Amino acid sequence: MTSPAYQTSIGPIHPAFKEPIHLKFDLKGERVLKADFAPGQAHRGVEWMGMRRNPVQVLYLAERICGICGVTHALSFARAVEQIAGIDVPARAHFLRSIACELERIHSHLLWAGVAAHELGFDSLFFFAWRARERVLDLMEKWTGNRVHYSLVQIGGVRRDLDAELIRDIEEALAFFESVFGEVRRCFLEDDTVNLRCRGVGVLTQRDALELGCVGPTARASGVPADVRADHPYAAYSFVRVKPVMPDAYTGAIHGDVYDRIVVRVYEIAQVIGLVREFLARLPEGPILAIPRIPALLARLKKAQGEAIGLHEAPRGEVLHYVRMNASAAPEAWKVKASSYSNYMAWVPMLEGEEVADIPIIAASIDPCISCTDRVLAVAPDGGRRELTKADLTRLSREKTRRLQQKRGAK
Fold first, then answer.
1. Total structural domains within the chain
2. Residue 286 and residue 169 share a domain
């Protein structure tokens, strides 16, 4: 006699997650029959605040959409505003932006690798990956003064240049990553434990990846060669050839499993080393800002009218910022689509049919950034929508707290 299916959930608060999200499962024994999830636990109203500030102030908000991607969101927003205002970014600034983006890719992939190792119970590998990651944080701190939120991107360029000493530091860091790459590759791709836990687990087919609109390493690991740097070249990527990293180039086949998603990220680290060296070799001289004086920049932006989309290939995949300006101090509209928003739905086909013990590494394999994606929207039974104000959210929070207190008191 087979055991009946039962329901269980993970989250919204759970030690396996660094951010809150609610995963729900129908299980039969140790097998996942059906998977679902509920985001929306970490809404911060970033877009709402951004439409009440001038574009230069919005850059600081955009950076704080994600705690890992210190360049990604600021660059995407700046690119959209620059298109609307007709601002031509100096060539040197384009290269500096791209160098920062690629260094951030190393940092993000090593951070993810450490988290993935931790989910597998391989904590010595976790510490190894995070120790290597520190070199990027040290570099960015020396360049910008900050280890996480760099405040490097400005509308029309960048705020900080690279001098000869910093360039030497970057070259030394690249040599370091090159020296440890073999160990990273061996530990993640040749270790028996990682192979047993990741091969054939959490499969996402190419068809599912296309139909669900997946992006970044999640899409590429399933055979979809989507990469904004190659498909829509921008900044310094217009001067070099970026070939999307696909798992079959290294393993001979594409399976779309957790292992293939590791393959893509590991070999992207090697790709970044080559890209940054090429950017440094071709770094042009010249200014780093189109409009150096902030009052002059704000005056230009206040006259800007139109709408545009700023794209960037973040470590997790395509990031999109839609901005509309209408000759006013603040943007008239600002909408952000983070990479994880495009990859969330891949969890369903990845998780269904898998073992309960594999849920953490499968969930982690898309490198989810939960706070990046959260939005709030109330949908009425008739399909209408209404905006939740700060007062509404405060009232609803207090009502929920009272209900929980009464429930505990009844026990």
1. 2
2. yes
